């Protein structure tokens, strides 16, 4: 990035951000059709970020409902609920989170990890990838016979509880990332 395009804090100027947004919109017309540019929560966030935040909070509530199903021994409903959340989250990662990470963070890593804006989002991304991978592994073990027996676990409650804790941490980290990226700069 040319020197004239940096602000005093080293973040992209509004001119550069507008260019990046135009590149993103023109680069992926499918996402542009799904998500208008302006957000709906009244923050500085684009529509995709607002939509993702609302979806993540809904999925967090659905995960809690899935836990309640398991407590009442409704394991089929529990499995359907948790698997649906996992797959919808995978879709949100592909449509919203990965493109945002790829555009805003990946080009600047690792030289800017000392700044909260970048560090929080990077930690959230790593924890989120871990939570999604563990969730996919649990679904593969619990819902299919695709894995060999030696790759399957037997301590169900430990794995499920660990995943619930990890997912909760990721959800809180995602809300924090949203705040740092879209609320705090405009406050």
Q: Could you explain how this protein is built, in words?
A:
The protein has 187 residues and is an all-alpha fold. The chain has one domain. The protein contains 6 helices and no strands. Helix 3 runs antiparallel to helix 6 and helix 5 packs antiparallel against helix 6. The protein is globular and about 50 Å long. The chain starts with 13 loop residues before the first helix and ends with a helix. The N terminus is likely disordered.
Number of strands: 0
Task: Give the helices and strands as they follow along the chain.
Answer: HHHHHH
Q: Report the end-to-end length measured between terminal Cα atoms.
A: 27 Å
Which residues sit in consecutive blocks of at least 5 with pLDDT less than 50?
1-27
> Taking Cα atoms only, what radius of gyration do you get, to the nearest Å?
19 Å
Sheet bearing the most strands, described? Answer: none
How many structural units, i.e. domains? 1
**Shape descriptor:** globular
Oligomer: single chain
Q: Helical segment tally?
A: 6
Structural class, judged by helices and strands?
A: mainly alpha
β-strand amount = under 5%
The average pLDDT value, as a whole number, equals 82
Question: Helicity range of the residues?
Answer: over 70%
């Amino acid at each position: 990035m040319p020197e004239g395009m940096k602000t005093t804090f080293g973040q992209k100027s509004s001119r550069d951000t507008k260019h990046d947004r135009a590149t993103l919109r023109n680069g992926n017309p499918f996402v542009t059709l799904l998500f208008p540019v302006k957000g709906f929560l009244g923050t500085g966030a684009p529509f995709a970020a607002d939509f993702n935040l609302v979806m993540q909070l809904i999925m967090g509530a659905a995960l809690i409902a899935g836990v309640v199903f398991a407590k009442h021994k409704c394991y089929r409903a529990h499995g359907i609920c948790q698997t649906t959340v996992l797959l919808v989250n995978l879709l949100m990662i592909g449509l919203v989170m990965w493109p945002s990470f790829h555009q805003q963070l990946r080009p600047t890593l690792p030289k800017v990890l000392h700044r909260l804006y970048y560090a929080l989002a990077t930690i959230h991304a790593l924890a989120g990838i871990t939570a999604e991978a563990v969730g996919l592994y649990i679904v593969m073990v619990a819902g299919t016979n695709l894995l060999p027996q030696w790759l399957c676990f037997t301590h169900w409650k430990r794995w499920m509880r660990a995943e619930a804790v990890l997912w909760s941490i990721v959800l809180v980290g995602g809300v924090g990332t949203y705040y740092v990226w879209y609320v705090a700069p405009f406050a």
